[in-house]
Task: inverse folding
């Protein structure tokens, strides 16, 4: 392809030959090959400009920067809004795969991953294959790509979309993070359906305040319908959420469908008579003149909301109501979201959940309380290099809504784990509670809760890391998975029980 074919009508300034050949494109100098275009992006850790020389040495034929770079060796495009330009460039380079796909974009603070899994199940039940891009991984046609980001960079999205379409798949279900919306990662992508789950406090380290966070999320809805596709566009909104109602006022040109589980709120998809059991949730659903009793294998009222969002997205994407209901009823559990660890024979339950905001923690604790456990014990920490203000809020909720809390570490990243815990303790002290213990090492905390604290009838919640298979500290990334660590100590506890029995000792709880 020639460079001139890849230029959009943005205000790009080209230095050098517009007929330069472009055989590939990347924003990472280490991936540059002969005749590639290199996007030198301003980063959070380093600056892509530092790698231009390396990109040229690796064979780049074009460099794209946000301010002129001193070289005559290769063609150069200078563009101020490089992230948006990169997305438009990706669209052209990969020949608009988004126009060949029916794309559902899910946004909101909590529930995105769960909704994508539910939609995937619904589509599979109707015999439809889809691609999924989200926090856990990017997957299609048996391929599983490790996810570095919930929503990857635009060039990666376009490359994946092209492969999805070339594999004959027609649907893409995608989580759209607020970072992605702010950083132009989905700029120009033509979505067909956009879902808004909820908006609560999160990522204010990045967005600074809730208004800007909301502004980022609302872009997905404002831009819905702009583009060349002329099929029906649909915005699906949780009207029970304060920001969902605010979203109705931002000027959405697509068709709007509301969902709700609160009696007084008018909505297109309505849940009532919700019953939560330890096997899942059951509720009545009404849509137009249709009714169904839904039984999902996901615990908690928050998952009823996720189910409503998924069902609405499917129905708006031409899946019949009956098939969508059946698919939802069959929808599988989501890795690391209220995932049960096998504790058979021990008399207590352990669940692993990705709650890493105060709202998520509250939702999950409410779901667990509904199961009437003897006690709830939590093991949790807060991530480093992320919104500090959520730490005391999570601390307060944890001690107020449970019987005992082990405060520990969750991806401290470059921060001192003790400092993060001190921030959590501010909220605990504000609540005037003493039902907690600090165990900085996460594995030690999990070990202690299983070996010493857990008693018959208890539910242990390991919160914050969900499906993650790593722990990031200032020393780097090491393998770590809550489920696997819990299994290790459950195994040890069982062995100790057997040994005690054989030695004729009575069971002993510390
Ligand atoms: C803050 C942020 O968004 N960072 C993302 C960004 O990295 P960065 O800007 O920090 O990159 P950098 O390391 O400074 O490097 C700058 C540039 O130099 C290039 N480079 C670097 C080294 C080299 O040798 N050669 C080279 O060309 C890099 O490729 C990059 O283009 O671009 C990277 C590549 O796409 C992302 O993986 C990275 O996400 C990091 C991992 C991250 O933690 N992001 C979080 C905050 C995030 O975006 N989260 C949301 C989800 C939130 C949620 O769902 O709750 C998400 O969508 O994932
Ligand atoms: N609809 C909901 N409302 C409130 N909390 C929820 C909801 N759905 C899930 N949660 C909580 O949030 C956690 C994360 O859920 P999920 O992974 O589905 O959300 P997400 O939006 O993809 O999160 P992330 O942005 O971190 O990827 C769950 O483990 C659960 O604790
Ligand atoms: N998408 C979220 C995930 C947080 C998960 C938690 N385990 C942490 O590391 O803080 C983020 O990157 O902020
Ligand atoms: Mg997610």
Result:
């Amino acid at each position: 392809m020639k460079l001139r074919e890849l230029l959009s009508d943005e205000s790009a300034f080209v230095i050098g030959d517009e007929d330069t050949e472009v055989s590939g494109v990347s924003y990472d100098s280490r991936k540059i090959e002969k005749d590639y275009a290199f996007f030198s992006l301003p980063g959070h850790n380093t600056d892509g400009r530092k790698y231009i020389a390396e990109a040229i040495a690796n064979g780049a034929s074009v460099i794209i920067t946000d301010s002129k770079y001193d070289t005559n060796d290769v063609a150069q495009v200078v563009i101020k809004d490089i992230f948006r330009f990169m997305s438009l460039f990706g669209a052209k380079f990969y020949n608009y795969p988004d126009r060949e796909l029916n794309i559902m974009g899910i946004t909101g603070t909590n529930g995105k991953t769960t909704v994508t899994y539910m939609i995937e199940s619904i589509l599979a039940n109707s015999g439809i294959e889809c691609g999924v891009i989200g926090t856990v991984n990017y997957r299609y046609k048996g391929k599983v790509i490790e996810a570095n980001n919930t929503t990857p960079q635009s060039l990666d999205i376009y490359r994946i979309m092209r492969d999805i379409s070339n594999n004959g798949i027609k649907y893409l279900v995608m989580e759209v993070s607020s970072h992605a919306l702010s950083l132009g990662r989905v700029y120009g992508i033509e979505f067909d359906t956009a879902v808004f789950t909820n908006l609560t406090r999160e990522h204010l380290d990045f967005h600074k305040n809730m208004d800007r966070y909301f502004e980022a999320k609302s872009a997905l809805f404002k831009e819905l319908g702009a583009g060349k596709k002329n099929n029906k566009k649909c915005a699906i909104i949780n009207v029970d959420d304060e920001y969902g109602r605010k979203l109705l006022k931002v000027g959405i040109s697509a068709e709007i469908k509301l969902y709700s589980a609160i009696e007084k709120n008018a909505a297109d998809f309505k849940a009532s008579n919700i019953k939560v059991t330890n096997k899942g949730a059951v509720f009545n659903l009404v849509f137009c003149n249709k009714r169904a009793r839904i039984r999902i294998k996901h615990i908690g009222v928050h998952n009823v909301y996720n189910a409503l969002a998924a069902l609405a997205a499917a129905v708006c994407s031409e899946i019949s109501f009956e098939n969508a209901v059946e698919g939802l009823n069959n929808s599988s559990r989501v890795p690391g979201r209220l995932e049960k660890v096998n504790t058979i024979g021990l008399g207590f339950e352990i669940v692993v959940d990705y709650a890493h905001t105060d709202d998520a923690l509250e939702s999950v604790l409410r779901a667990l309380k509904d199961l009437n456990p003897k006690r709830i014990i939590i093991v949790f920490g807060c991530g480093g290099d992320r919104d500090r203000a959520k730490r005391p809020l999570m601390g307060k909720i944890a001690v107020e809504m449970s019987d005992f809390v082990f405060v520990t570490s969750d991806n401290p990243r470059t921060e001192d784990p003790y400092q993060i815990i001190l921030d959590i303790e501010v909220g605990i002290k504000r609540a005037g509670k003493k039902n907690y213990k600090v165990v900085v090492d996460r594995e030690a905390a999990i070990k202690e809760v299983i070996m010493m604290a857990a008693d018959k009838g208890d539910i242990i919640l390991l919160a914050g890391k969900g499906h993650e298979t790593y722990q990031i500290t200032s020393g780097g990334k090491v393998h770590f998975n809550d489920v696997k660590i819990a299994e290790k100590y459950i195994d040890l506890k069982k062995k100790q029980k057997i040994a005690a029995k054989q030695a004729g000792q009575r069971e002993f709880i510390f």
Q: What stands out?
A: The mean pLDDT is 95.
